[in-house]
Structure formats: structure tokens, C-alpha cells
Amino acid sequence: MTDGSPGPARRSIAPPSVLGDPDRLRALSDTGLDAAPDEAFDRFARLVSDLLDVPVALVSLVSADRQFFPGAVGLPQPWSEHRQTPLSHSFCQHVVDIEVPMVLPDARLYPRVRDNLAIDDLGVVAYAGMPLTDLSGRVLGSLCAIDSKPRAWTAAQLRTLADLAAACSSELRLRIALDGAQEARRRVVQAHERLELLAGVSETLAGTLDVGTALRRLAATMVPLLADWCLLTLIGPNGLPREVVSVHRDPARAADVDRFGELLRTGLSSESSIRAVLRTGQPRLGSVASLADVTRGTTDPEMASIASRLGIASYLSVPVRGVGGTVLGAITLVNGGQRQQFDDRDLLTAVDIGRRAGQAVGNSSMYGEQRHVAEVLQHSMLPRLPVVAELELAARYQPAADRVEVGGDWYDAFVQPDGDVIAAIGDVAGHDIEAAATMGQLRNLVRGNAFGRPDAVGSLMSNLDGAIRGLRLPIAATATLVRICPQRSGVHEVTWSNAGHPPALVVRVGGAVEALEATPEPLLGLARPSPRSSRSTSLATGDTLLLYTDGLIERRDRSIDEGLAELVGRLTGTDTLPLDDLCDLLLTSIGHREDDTALLAVRAR
């Protein structure tokens, strides 16, 4: 005998049907034992060998297709190394079948076992096996004594073997109970993790109103906590995938999973589980899956090839439902072979996530529509800048991030009949439709009050204040009003008046930055009239005047003065930067926008 493979069988005998009983196999699995030495069960084998004076003793557990020995003494090679045999070499399978002790003084004389290959290959002649049972009485295997010659087993020997089998069965039951306790503990931990996951999903989805951002964050939340990889699919008006977000737990598989998501948009067949979920709104659970499922569900052979690299052994797919139960998309989770298969608990968790995701997607879609309307409305209220030979003008307006509301930030610039340019910027309190409407009124008042009048800007600001009070307009606003007198000589006179607004800045040729500070004067629209002053400076060719609202400098974590100092530092040395590039630079440097921002830049030519 040179290896562990069985020799030619004398007669093919089907294994007993009881070996495949699911409950018995589950209990066998719960012992946690396999074809590897276990000190406790090796000790039982040694006791049997010593007390019964036999050369071979085994703690043999029998599965549906093999027997294995967590306890063994005296097995010849290679069986002692492998610690298992096929059923063709198993006497213990018959103990499992008959559920009572099997005692054979000479196995060669008994029809049930005389053709068993263990007689020749393992030298089994005399055999005595006692059932090893779980708490429900299911026979998992046998504690057996084996001799290579005929033997008359005594009653004392069989009683000793039975007592040892009872103790061995108790040890098996303890292992099963321990596994059950560990499984219960695992389920408690898993339930806690799922509650944390659901709470995290809600927090994740509530943290943004952008659909794409919400889907990416949701995918990152579920992988790897719930799955090895996932696909988040949103459908278009035709009911087919429009947007797919895909994530894998292994960063090295990012390109593969992205490609799979890209192909999924157009590569699903009529038998696809994802399409079935999108069509019916019913979840699907594939607790056992293979590449055949991918091949059947796709029209592009590349998808199966990619799936083989990503790993697929189990999957589930659930609908993402919006208001009224409308199916907006699907969440598909996939596990590879190294991870536990999905079960009904996973499906319920995923269904709950799909419901929460549907609410977030619906809110995000509504937000997107409202934000678009708001931005169109806001920009419709902002003017077209005039063209002036001696001056270059540029302006920007940017609403706050993740907010639908229009706001009260505004800017304006227009040319007087005498050629002077009036520039203004302001901020009406509030971030809603009412604030935007008030802003529109204030801008029109500025134009009506200033156009065609040569008054100093301080007087214009006082007149504006009086008009607000006289018309009883509910306006509270900061503003800066500037008059620029373009000169062909290249030096332009500038006068300004500031009503509680952040100071204008001038970037001089050479890169130095000058703040147009003035004695603080109250906001527009206060109950009592306040005198308004005019201040003056000049712009030489290449100098840039910057008017802006506080969204450019205000943050929750710092003071206005700190924000202004940072802005001055950012502007220093930007005198050669094209005006549009300068405006874009200022907006992109804000990061997360906490407030609306308007800015107006004027450069002397």
C-alpha cells in the first residue's frame, strides 16, 4: 500500500441514506471538528487502546461522503497522516445507520462488511463500535476498537467501551453547545452591527442632498461591512440602468468593479436578477451563486470574466423605492467564496437600506429640481455687465453648497450718461425667496436712485436709505456703492460709500493689496436716518478693485477679521492674473461654501 486511495472495490454498495440527513450533518458541523488531531479525542482513543488492549482505536465521525478521525491511535500510514478515509473504508457508517453498537469478532464473516476495503487496506478484522450521539440522539459517528486478528470481545470490554463512548458523546455535545453559544453571540454582534449599519446609513444619506454623493457614501458604508462588493443602480425613464455606482472591498479591484458597473448599464439580459428587481420591485436572494448566474443574466461575455476576478458565491438584490412605492433603482450585494453566504436576515437588512436609500434619492431629486429653479431665478436677477473701454469687469455668483434656497447676495454695474461707472454690491438678510425678492427691489432702487445723478456716492446712499424708509420696504442689508470716473490718462478716480459691508480691496500693480477701510456706518434700512460719507482713492492702469459679499471670508470656525486677512494673503501677487481667472480662483478657494457668495472685480486699463 503506497497511498491513501482506495483499491478496486469488490462490490459497489450505496452509503446509508441517513448519512445525508441535514440535521445530522448540521450537528456534525457544529462540533467544529475535522480531519485534524484534537487532544481531547486523541485521549479517548488512547484510553480505548490501553483499556481494551487493541492496536487501533478511533473517534470516527461520519459525514455524507467520508469518515474522519479527530481522535486516533495506531492507524497505519498514510491514513494516520490524512486522518480520514472514504466511505469505502468505513465500518463506522454502519453504526450510524443501525444506531446501536456493532460488534464483530471477525468482520470477514459478516455480509454487511466483508467486502469493505478497510479489511485489506487498514487490517480491520475484529471491530467493536459504540454510537456517538448529540443531545437529540442523532448518531454522528462511532468510538471504535479495532484488531487485525479475530477477537472475542468480552462483556467487560464492551461495557468499558460503552462508558467511554458516553463520555466521548458528552464532549461532542459540549462542542456543539459551545458552537451554539458562539453562534448566538455572533448573531448578537451581527444584529448590533446591522443596527449600527442602518443608523450609519441614515446619517450618511442625510449628510448630502446630491444623488451621486449619496450613492457613493452608501456604497462605502455597506462594503466591506455587509458585502465584498456592491452595485447601486438607478434607472432612467425607460426603466433601464441610467447610473451605476460600484465598489469592491479590495482597492486593487477598483478598475474591474468600475468596468463591471459600466457594462451593467447596457449589458443586462432579460433573465437578469437586477432587471427582475427593477421590473417587479421584489427582492431576490441567491444564497448560492456562481458564474453561470452572471452569464445567464448578461449579454456581454466580459461581465462573467470580470465577475470571476471579483468573486461571486452569493448575492442579493433589493429595490430602491421612492414615494408611493415607485422603483427608482436597485442595490445588489455580492459575496465571494471566502465569506458567509447571504441569508434572510441579510435580505431584510438590505430591504431596509433600499427603503432608506429611496427616500434619500427622492429627496435629492426634488432638491436638484428646486435648486435648478432657484439658481435660474437668482441668475435672472443678476445684471449683464457693461462694456467700458477704460475698464475690464468680471463678476461671479455662487450659491451655498447643499442648499436649495436663493439668497440676498447681489452685484450691479452700469454706465451713467456722463460716462461714469456705478458699481454696487450688497447682501440682504435671509436665504429664501423673500430675500431674493427683496434683493431685486433693492437693486432696482439703487439703479433708479443713482442713474443720471452726479451726487456723491455718500449722498446717493443717504437717498437710498430714505427711499427704503419712505416706501416702508422691509429691507435690512449691507451694501457698498462705488463711482468710477474713467480717464484716458490711465488714472481713474474712485469714490465709495460703505453701509456695514466688508471693505472693498484693491490689488495694486506689483501685487500689494489695499483694503478700502472707512469708519463703520450702519446697515441700510434701519429705523433712524444715518449720515453717509464718501471716501476716495484712485485706480492706475493694472490696478484691480474687488467688491465681494461675506460668503467669501466668513466661516463658522474663524472670525471675519481672520477671513479678511486670509483673503488679502490670497490676493497678494495676483495683479498679473487674468480677471476671470482671479474670480474663479477666489471661488474655488472657498472649499465648502457656508453662505452665498457674490463678487465684482474691476480692473483699470
TrEMBL record:
SMART domains for this protein: GAF, PP2C_SIG
One Pfam family matching this protein: GAF
Cited SUPFAM superfamilies: GAF domain-like, PP2C-like
Keyword Cytoplasm: no
Segments forming domain PPM-type phosphatase: 388-604
Keywords: Hydrolase
Tagged with keyword Hydrolase: yes
UniProt superkingdom: Bacteria
Residue span, GAF domain: 36-182, 210-371
InterPro entries reported in the protein's UniProt record: Bact_Sigma-Reg, GAF, GAF-like_dom_sf, PPM-type-like_dom_sf, PPM-type_phosphatase-like_dom
Region (Disordered): 1-21
Gene3D superfamilies hit by this protein: 3.30.450.40, PPM-type phosphatase domain
Protein name per UniProt: Serine phosphatase RsbU (Regulator of sigma subunit)
Organism of this sequence: Micromonospora vinacea
